[in-house]
Amino acid sequence: MEIIDITITIAGEAGQGLQTIGQLLSKAFSRKGLNVFANQVLQSRIRGGHNYFQVRVSYEKVFAPAGATDILIAFDKESACHIQELAQNAITIFDSTITTLEVTQGLRLDVPLEKIAKENGGNKLMANTVAVAAVLGLLEYDITVLFDLLRESFSDKSKEVAEVNIKVAQAGYNATYRKIQGNKLPALGDLHGNKKMLIGGSEAVALGALAAGCKFISAYPMSPSTGIMTYLASKDKEFGIVVEQSEDEIASINIALGASYAGIRAMTASSGGGFALMVEGLSLSGMTETPLVIVDAQRPGPATGLPTRTAQEDLEYVIFTGHGEFPRAVLAPRTIEDAFYLTVKAFNLVDKYQIPVIILSDQFLADSLLTIDTFDTEQVKVERHLIGNDELQKLQGYKRYQITESGISPRALPGNPYGLVVVDSDEHDEEGHITEDVEHVRPEMVKKRNRKNIALVKEISPPLRYGPENAEDILVGWGSTYGALKEAVDILNAKEEKAALVHFNEVWPLPKEHFDFLEKAKFVCVVENNYRGQFAHLITATTGRIMENRINKFNGLAFTAQEIVREYKKLKK
Amino acid sequence: MVDLNTFGKFETAWCSGCGNFGILDAVKDALVKLNLDAHNIVLVSGIGQAAKLPHYLYGNVFNGLHGRAIPAATGIKIANHKLVVIVTSGDGDIYGEGGNHFIHAIRRNIDITVIVHNNQVYALTKGQASPTSDVGYVTKVQTHGVIDAPVHPLTLAIALEAGFVARSFAGDKEHLSLMIQEGIQHKGFSLIDTLQWCVTFNKKNNFAWYKQRAYKLGPEYEPSDKVKAFEKSLEWGDKIPIGIIYRNGRPSYEEACGLIKDKPLVEQESSAHKVKTILKEFL
Q1: Does some domain include residue A421?
Q2: Could you say which residues from 14 to 73 on chain A have a Cβ atom under 8 Å away from some Cβ of chain B?
Q3: Which of A3, A32, A95, B43 is least crowded, fewest Cβ atoms below 10 Å from its Cβ?
Q4: Do A221 and A345 have their domain in common?
Q5: In this structure, which topology does domain B4-282 adopt according to CATH?
């Protein structure tokens, strides 16, 4: 089978429907079983500016942008910035009635998108439909897939709206189908794969929360985390989940902690700035031993930074912030698929250890779309670790903070008739009441809380190793960089350079033995979307080994495999 | 049978003669009168001397962060609205550090009863001005006297269309107990701003100062008239009204939310298994 790896870039201003086109194309491909990875690069504004949406289609699974564009749909002059990334046989579609464009690479195709829409009974807005169809025409794709999608997306409107769109789509398709001399793009006419799910990063976290039985989220809208709350709100009746948009992030975390104390699985989500406001509440979760899942969808900082771009700058922050000492776990999904399972794990960990767990994602992961076969919901186990009324009744007086060997105390819920549930942000005794006993109670409580880490650290999964077993050159990464790193390793090994990837998605606590691979490695390079090399610091702190070789990207964009290969080769010289 | 013994007797960290004792007695009295068992109540507080109250009677307790009692109480009530949720904290906690939450909890109209121990001073931190201190009030920090105009909590609450707005006096246990009973029975956010003297740090607004000024609203006063309630809430000087200043029948959050009308969230069956069925929406 020939290798198919096509990237379609839709570029233009905010408000020109780039997302609609990108999503329709992604869905058209996933419906025929192709693998899709789509991501968007946006400016923080509602209209204007220059944005782009990239759809990468492949027979193989891909998790990162390719870095080269095969089909460019250019809606504005600024789209010229993508010309340098055009592949050799690239085709650029533009409408000379909307914008002018000089193209030096590949074919330049003036398609009268608006005119086609209007001449076929549609309006100016349907230029988007024409654009989608024109791309499918170039690839000789099955256009009926698009017809189905149009019918579905206009199902709540009159039948005519869908039919007009279909007519317009057919005309757009005809405009490019086998009409372009010199079109060297592969034809994708003969596909028989099963439909794949096409899902976004925020949706995957939200679905993980629903699968884990989460019944409450309080959050304050903040890019790029808002999608989680939005998706959950769309399912509130069906799943009996209450979504509360709180007055600020301080309220978000404290409301969620109240809900969790009263017995339901609760979460909150924000980006770095909102998370910063939650930090006192994080410490409250640690002190009162109230379970809580917190999502930090990272964006570049400091302060407001680049609100709609990506970064891995909050790693050390989320691990070390919060006054006082208490255990926590930090999970950093490596793919959208992984985000679902890690969210479930986060909910089980918080209940088992009565701690906060942070899901550390980022804009790149949150705003991307990925095809997957399915989520294995059979794998999902909801483990609440609550003490029931029968057991409570047998106890001679319930103590919320009973000192135990594991440090984990039996957790009952308020409202039960057998034991009062007293929690306190002050240092407290076993019953939960405020104390200033510094001789006995305070040291015992500190030890109890922190002892939970002994078992917690054993819950952390080892890193994923990818590439030749005997490779002595190792790339190390964590979180959403997985896709680009995996591909970089493939590229390197294709050229007989033996390199492997060691990739972490559970980044705190860090068991020392997860770094045993360092013993056999000759060359280690840590790759991160930040300036300082924060994971490299953690490796040093855990193992005592200095990580000298690093690749850091901090301009707000995600890595591509080619970039990593280029920088890796420089370091190896 | 619920009686005063239900709620026990505890040693406290309060100064002898503190106004907090009167509030504690009134809370217990109200709970007994409403026949509420310790297991069915949650006392929520922030930080301060007032916020220690939940430790001095039997009940479920969430003693959270300074200023954050109201959000925690909100979460508890959303999760299990069968529980009677009572916030007891000071003026600094609720009107200062937690001012934003005070505003938005009123808008939300969550069914919690908020008892504010308002002594017009920060006592636990040793005598600085509070959001309700009078202009000109001199402290070790406000050495030239307080410049900021005081918060009028009742006026603010009425402006935000709070469902139940009352004031009482820590020196009148019977009246305060009655206000607390009314507040707990009201479906929605209830504010009971409670005049409280501080024996150690507020030499100006002492027991006698409040005692002389506080007068009970008579039966002729109609708390449903918003404009009159505004006027009444602004009365602060030689005479200070106590009683229900304003009340209305706005639907509570629990009633309006739709998802927790009948069964508390914590008792609702998990729908987690349904995830499998919605996955097809992504095909």
Answers
A1: no
A2: 30-31
A3: A3
A4: yes
A5: Rossmann fold (3.40.50)
Name the minimum distance, in Å, from the CA of B64 to any CA of chain A: 5
A25 lies in some domain: yes
Chain A residues close to B83, C-beta within 8 Å = 262, 414-415
ipTM: 0.98
- Please tell me whether residues A191 and A88 are part of one structural domain: yes
Q: Please check whether residues A261 and A151 belong to one and the same domain.
A: no
| Predicted TM-score (pTM) above 0.90 | yes
Domain count, chain A: 3
Q: Which of A139, A169, A195 is the last residue of a domain?
A: A195
DSSP A342-374: HHHHHHHHHHHHTSEEEEEEEHHHHT-EEEES-
Q: How far apart are CA A76 and CA A58, in angstroms?
A: 27
Q: Are strands B240-247 and B164-169 parallel, antiparallel or unpaired?
A: antiparallel
- Domain membership of residue A428 (yes or no) is no
Taking only the tens place, the pLDDT of each residue in B75-99 is 999 999 999 999 999 999 999 999 9
Q: Least CA distance to B263: which residue of chain A?
A: A240
Q: pLDDT per residue over B18-31, tens digit each?
A: 999 999 999 999 99
What is the residue range of A161's domain?
5-195
Hey, where are the domains in chain B? 4-282
A363 plus A261 within the same structural domain: yes
Phi and psi at residue B51, in whole multiples of 5°?
-70, -5
In this prediction, residue A396 carries a pLDDT of 82
Residue A99 is predicted with a pLDDT of 86
A residues 427..486 contacting B (CB < 8 A): 432-434
- Look-up of token digits 């240092």: A427
Pairing of strands B121-122, B190-195: unpaired
Whether the predicted pLDDT of A472 surpasses 80? yes
Handedness of CA A139, A142, A143, A148 (dihedral sign): negative
Test B39 with A240 for CB contact under 8 angstroms: no
* CA distance to partner chain A, nearest, from residue B50 (Å): 13
Decide if A413 and B266 are in contact by the 8 Å CB cutoff: yes
